[in-house]
Design brief:
The structure is a homodimer. The first copy, chain A, is α/β, with parallel strands linked by helices. Chain A is built from twelve helices and 20 strands. In chain A, the strands form five sheets. Chain A has an eight-stranded mixed sheet with strand order 3-6-2-1-9-11-12-10, with helices on both faces.
Chain lengths: ~400, ~400
């Protein structure tokens, strides 16, 4: 007997047939003797329609009203799934954020969960009733509906699992687990049985969008065991399914490198011939921060002739805003010119085993050199090495690294 | 300065353009110096879609879950209208049933409002904020969303007007008021400036479906002044618009007959040669009541040879259920046969002035006789005379009566 939270996204509940499938999947867990809470998203497409209406009425709409409108998508799914469960003989009840309640701050449209009072849900789950909970929403300190921002249902599920002291949080997605890399690029990619929170975070932040980053952070902080698995595979409850995201300590055989991730969502900016004096970096990145531009990789070359080149990456969609911000501070900073390159890709190797193994970065550089791929920028963290390369080499680089680190399936 | 509740139905908020129209209409009331609460329905078609989903998943779905699903329709409209109002400079805030709260009993799917705590809304309205309230819903004693049943938004509006001690409740519909009869049948039909609650109730119950019956009963009990007017006419705030539904005392020039109503929704049943002994009527109508068949007109002819004929009307859709119920008790009652006639129409003349005028019924009978229309059943109340005739004479009868009572416009 275990207490589990199951989470199904919009494509898994896109129509009544899929909702019936989800109900059958939930029933199997109940019949296996588990206490079950289910977190659901809006039916695919519904949220987009609701957002579009708000935006059409007023581009700068009130976030409190946006939340009232958009939260209805999840509410519909909870009621429909509860009905579908009852129809196949499973006792079930829907729960909105304000009913549980799921307390959040009052930052409408991007609220953060502050606490979940799970007592009533636990009481009912112990009595055999499935709790069908609306994801992506809560109730703010202003007694109004809040939403967590797009993709927030993963976070809802993990927070609920923490609030209910669940044994596991199963996130059903359109993939059947976390892979060593994108199987569309490397057919030999292997599904990982287990991965640590830290690795999952690094993979998520570099573009392997299986779980929302905030949900992984929360799972790490609250020590919630998360399992990623496919909602379309119709097997029974099976502990070998999917990928388990857990504490590093639970991973016995640590791979040096767990996965290769890539992202083509960034653009490279070089500020040429910046006067090399104290405070210059603060001027540049201060201007970007004030304009809400997130900067990722940063490299400053050594100084020559009293000037330096500053290279960094920003989200591709932030490029116009970054350019405008830097144009505005040009007189004050006095740089020579701005170079932009949107045709870049960030390739990352990720693994907790790196901590205890030397030479991981070197293997990467050699593998890329063997394919004559030029490295533009390098950035490292404790469990990750990332490089920036020309976008056209993305697939070649990912395949070469997958082989170099011995990740190809038997 | 007045405090008013404005109510807009589904067709008035069917799309974003119409929601913008509603916002402009509300703005005019605000600019006229009024405190305004707006009650809205779901966008036309939305509720039907949600109901269809529930029914498809489970024909006998849980009413609590049905309520959670269906109440989202109104929630969306409240948020969108609040945004549309803010966009044109009107301070506004959406309110769901559970937020105000609008307390109801726990009879899900057909709940009754038990009380509205209007304090917070009044405070905000006095500060100039428009309250946009979801119609058709409340919060039950079980802390779950309830709905009032189809058409319940009129009742929400009247209850809110009572709770807020509003000076008036303006119900915007697709007609511009209450007419002496259906203008599609009688082009000379006149719009009534005022009508009493009692007359409105009689007109509603005989098929002039301008307002939901329950909302009129509530308005009468709570002495809420209701105005029926068109949401599509784009005139400014104008006290002469529409029809005012008020207490009889407020109507100075009482017409003897205010209107002619008709209904083709009933069917006639005759139980032939029923043994004329005490308790027989109770057996027949007891059997119908047990099977949830509402009986309207009842006529029992005088007895001959120890048997009698019992004639009554039921809703056309209840006919199969009525027949089954009477077939089942035939052995016990011992009647000779059952006659059914679905091709009947009920024609009613309604007016509070009848109380003090003799000969009203006689005028009706003579006008019908002049057109050679046979009267099958007669039923009277204090302010109404109804007759059952063959359905094919409906229009002819309505026109003849409209003329006979002097209702034709100039």
């Amino acid at each position: 007997m275990a207490r589990i939270v199951m989470k199904f996204g919009g494509t898994s509940v896109a129509d009544l047939d899929r909702i019936r499938n989800v109900a059958r999947r939930v029933k199997r867990e109940v019949e296996a003797g588990n206490q079950v809470a289910v977190v659901v998203s809006a039916m695919a497409g519904v949220t987009n329609q609701l957002v579009a209406w708000c935006t059409e009425l007023s581009p700068l709409h009130d976030a409190r009203e946006y939340d009232a409108v958009v939260a209805t998508g999840e509410q519909v799914t909870t009621g429909l799934l509860a009905i579908a469960l009852q129809e196949i003989g499973v006792e079930a009840r829907s729960w909105q954020g304000w009913q549980i309640p799921i307390h959040t701050d009052a930052a409408h449209g991007k609220a953060r969960i502050q606490g979940i009072d799970g007592a009533e849900l636990v009481r009912r789950m112990e009595a055999g009733q499935v709790a069908v909970v609306a994801g992506f929403q809560g109730i703010g300190s202003d007694n109004r509906i809040t939403t967590l921002g797009r993709g927030g249902s993963d976070t809802s599920a993990v927070a609920l699992a923490a609030g209910l002291k669940a044994d596991r949080c199963d996130i059903y997605t359109d993939v059947d687990g976390v892979y060593t890399t994108d199987p569309r690029i490397v057919p030999q990619a292997r599904k990982l049985a287990r991965i640590s929170y830290e690795e999952m975070l690094e993979l998520a932040s570099v573009g392997a969008k299986v779980l929302q980053t905030r949900s992984v952070e929360l799972a790490m902080n609250e020590q919630v065991r998360v399992r990623v698995l496919s909602s379309f595979k119709d097997s029974g409850p099976n502990d070998d399914e999917g990928t388990l995201v857990v504490d590093e300590d639970e991973i016995v055989e640590k791979e040096i490198v767990s996965g290769i991730a890539y992202s083509r969502d960034e653009a490279k900016i070089t500020v040429r011939r910046v006067p090399d004096r104290p405070g210059i970096a603060a001027s540049i990145f201060g201007a970007l921060a004030e304009n809400n531009v997130n900067v990722d990789m940063i490299v400053q070359n050594i100084s020559a002739d009293g000037t330096t080149d500053m290279t960094f990456t920003v989200g591709k969609s932030d490029l116009p805003r970054a350019r405008a911000a830097l144009d505005a501070v040009k007189p004050q900073i006095g740089y020579a010119e701005l170079l932009e390159d949107p045709n870049v890709a960030k390739i990352s190797v990720v693994g907790v085993g790196m901590r205890s193994h030397a030479g991981v970065a070197n293997t990467m550089f050699r593998a890329l050199a063997d394919k004559a791929i030029n490295i533009q920028v390098i950035s490292t963290s404790e469990i990750k090495v990332s490089v920036l390369i020309a976008a056209e080499y993305t697939e070649l680089a990912v395949r070469a690294l997958h082989t170099a680190y011995g990740l190809d399936a038997g």
